[in-house]
């Protein structure tokens, strides 16, 4: 079953997508230390869940959260200034925990923002399936759920991935690689594939 996350499920959903992204090459490059990476991902997902700039959909299997997709509707990315301001305490807490690595995270985010499409797009900010549920089609189902919503609203869709194997998966759903990628978004940064699916 795929549905919206509830307030009570946010913490569990955050833990699931954090663990799913722990092996992501992009995040491994930006935050190499496992503990710091887990703290960074958990904080960033909490911010995304809390400030309503995003739509969080979960896949529930056997009564537990098995996968999570974070979608940002057109016109809502990056986070509005007011939302970023409200997130400041969480980000300061993260900075105290991981020190100078916060600059690398900020730089990574800025490099993503710098090449973000100027046209209105529905943005797949994050998609992850818990380690115990991978390989069962849950990620594909979460993706299809969001694409159906985009198609109903005649919206283009945009995403980034640092996993080359995902390029073929997304390609089967109508995405094509954006001109200029793959490549690092900043000096020394991880290689990223930027992909776009046109509005129907």
Description:
This protein is α+β, with helices and mostly antiparallel strands and about 200 residues long. The chain has eight helices and eight strands. Strands 1, 2, 3, 4, 5, 6, 7 and 8 form an eight-stranded mixed sheet that branches. Helix 1 packs across helix 3 and helix 3 runs antiparallel to helix 5. The longest helix is centred in the first third of the chain and has 17 residues. The two termini are about 25 Å apart. About 35% of the residues are buried. The mean pLDDT is about 90.
Task: Produce the secondary structure layout.
Layout: E1 2-4, H1 10-21, H2 25-30, H3 34-50, E2 55-61, E3 64-72, H4 81-86, H5 88-98, H6 101-114, E4 121-129, H7 138-152, E5 156-161, H8 164-171, E6 176-177, E7 183-184, E8 191-197
Structural class: alpha+beta
Binned, the helix content reads 40-55%
Strand content: 15-25%
* Uncertain runs: none
Backbone CA Rg: 16 Å
Shape: globular
- The SSE string, one letter per element, is EHHHEEHHHEHEHEEE
The number of helical runs is 8
Strand tally: 8
Largest sheet data: 8 strands, mixed
C-alpha end-to-end distance? 25 Å
| Average pLDDT metric | 91
- Say what oligomer this is: single chain
């Amino acid at each position: 079953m795929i549905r919206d996350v509830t307030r009570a499920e946010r913490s569990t959903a955050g833990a699931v997508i954090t663990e799913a992204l722990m092996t992501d090459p992009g995040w491994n490059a930006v935050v190499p230390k496992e503990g710091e990476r887990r703290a960074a991902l958990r904080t960033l997902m909490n911010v995304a869940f809390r400030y309503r700039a995003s739509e969080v959909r979960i896949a529930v299997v056997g009564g537990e959260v098995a996968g999570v997709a974070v979608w940002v509707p057109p016109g809502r990315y990056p986070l509005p200034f007011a939302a970023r301001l409200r997130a400041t305490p969480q980000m300061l807490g993260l900075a105290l925990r991981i020190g100078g690595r916060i600059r690398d995270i900020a730089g990574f985010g800025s490099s993503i923002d710098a090449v973000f499409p100027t046209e209105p797009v529905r943005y797949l900010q994050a998609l992850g399936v818990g380690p115990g549920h991978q390989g069962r089609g849950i990620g594909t189902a979460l993706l299809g759920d969001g694409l159906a919503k985009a198609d109903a609203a005649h919206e283009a869709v945009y995403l980034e991935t640092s996993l080359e194997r995902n390029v073929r998966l997304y390609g089967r759903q109508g995405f094509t690689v954006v001109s200029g990628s793959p490549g690092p978004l900043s000096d020394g940064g991880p290689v990223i594939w930027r992909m776009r699916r046109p509005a129907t």
